[in-house]
Amino acid sequence: MAKTVLVACGAGIATSTVVNSAIEELAKENNIKVDLKQIKIAEVGAYVDTADLLVTTAMTKTEYPFPVINARTFLTGIGVEDTKKQILEELQK
Prior knowledge:
Elements: E1 3-9, H1 14-29, E2 34-40, E3 53-56, E4 68-70, H2 73-76, H3 80-91
Parallel strand pairs: 1-2, 1-3, 3-4
Helix pairs in contact: 1-3
Pfam families: PTS_IIB
GO molecular function, one term: protein-N(PI)-phosphohistidine-sugar phosphotransferase activity
Keywords: Transferase
């Protein structure tokens, strides 16, 4: 069964596209099925019952029933490998 992964940034366009591609690649390399949803951070609430993971470049103080991974490292380029490792660990659960 595929994991539903929300990829959210403030506006739902530029940065989430970069993160989206990275997760797609990770999943493919590790033979994990993912269903990626690229959304705005404001839309996360609509997925609380269906998502397995939120990867976001936006700031969020909201508590969700699934893990939230901060992917701002993708913007700075510093610590990207650690973030990918974190994402992969969640996908493998």
